[in-house]
Design brief:
It is a single chain. The protein is of the alpha/beta class and 387 residues long. It is 48% helix and 15% strand. The chain has 17 helices and 14 strands. Strands 3-2-1-4-5-6-8-7 form an 8-stranded mixed β-sheet, with helices on both faces. Strands 11-10-9-12-13-14 form a 6-stranded parallel β-sheet, with helices on both faces. β12, α14 and β13 form a beta-alpha-beta unit. The structure holds uridine-diphosphate-N-acetylglucosamine (UD1) and uridine-5'-diphosphate. The site of uridine-5'-diphosphate has 15 residues, from α1, α13 and α14.
Length: 387
Amino acid sequence: MKILTIIGARPQIIKAAALSRAVSKRDDICEVILHTGQHYDTNMSDVFFRELGIPEPDINLHVGSGNHGEQTGKMIMEIEKVLLSRDIDGVVLYGDTNSTLAGAVAAGKLHVPVYHIEAGLRSFNMAMPEELNRIVCDQLSTILFAPTETAMNNLRNEGFMTEKRHFADGSVQQVIKSGDVMYDNSLYFADMAAEKSDVLRRFGLEDKRFILATIHRPANTDNAENLSNIFRALADIAEREQSKAEGLKVVLPLHPRTRKMLPQQLPAELLKRIENCGSFIVTEPAGFFDIIELERHARIVMTDSGGVQKESFFFETPCVILRPETEWVEIVAAGAGIIADADYERILSAYDKLCGKVVHFPQLFGDGHAAEHIVGEIVRHGSQMDR
Ligand code: UD1
Ligand code: UDP
């Protein structure tokens, strides 16, 4: 069986590492890797292939940045050509980016089976481009691999059946609870990261004496009030803790979108304060080994990222969620994360609450072998198609 793995954005490259490992252990399946080129900076793309041992992409569309329609449209055109010219038995898609949407539309129209990893996630916020992408992708999917029980419930509520459905044209649709491939990766790479990353030494960081913050959602980066609230809260917490003997740093590996928007969105006095206060370490996007070391050793993670929320949970670091809602509601239900949005008071209060209590991190994201289960199901589906 030959699958086409479509990736494009940073988190998809990382997730693909788990599946590539599982595919490489079998001789009944092989993958062709297509990179749309949605992310292209070395530290948003190449670094992950190198660190995580992912095979080089067979195809790179070099689509680059652009408005949603332009970016997605170019991808659909090029993915269609690949599907028409190569003998592909199924397409593997991750998450909810424009690369996911493009793959789903191109494959769906050509009746190529779509295997969607991270199906069923919902924020119920249609202002997020990702919410539209994931709803469309789920509708076009042949097998929906839901990572959590919440994702299963979301799909049930939208009328997806957990039993296999057979359609008149011979195609099928199936929803499978698979566990989370990001959990697989966190287990697999944790020791390697501890050994290979020198990020703590490089930045002079001590265990539990820094906040890790990542911000890249347009709702924050493209909104001056939200972005200022977040940075004011971070600066105030850092200054408050600075007066205590042990001090506290704030580490900010900046997504390129955020780096571009910061000077435009933050008032000059706040920018100056951050530059001068001595607590902020503003840096390039981190490699995977560095970021998971930072997640593991941070006192608190503050993020609007889906992946960083989950990884902090895997590494048992509490998390302040800089969004009005989350798809990973079980983290909040477990008490390991607090939704604070981009609200100054709520961010401070969430930080204080999470620092002041014992937090539990139950195992909610599978058994660490999600990718192997997924590949097994894809091969099973492929062999049924042959008959
Ligand atoms: C995309 C995904 C988002 C995901 C995020 C992961 C969509 C709609 N959004 O958001 O779901 O959480 O990736 O990081 O697919 N840029 C660079 N270099 C790069 C990549 C981007 O400079 O290598 C800059 C460009 O100015 C670009 C901007 O970042 O316009 C945004 O990139 P884009 O891929 O459109 O969206 P993300 O915010 O990265
Ligand atoms: N990540 C990284 N370096 C960073 C920030 C994040 O390697 O500086 C990784 C992180 O460990 C996680 C993934 O990128 O595996 C999350 O991607 P991102 O935050 O870009 O997007 P989201 O998960 O919100 O879609």
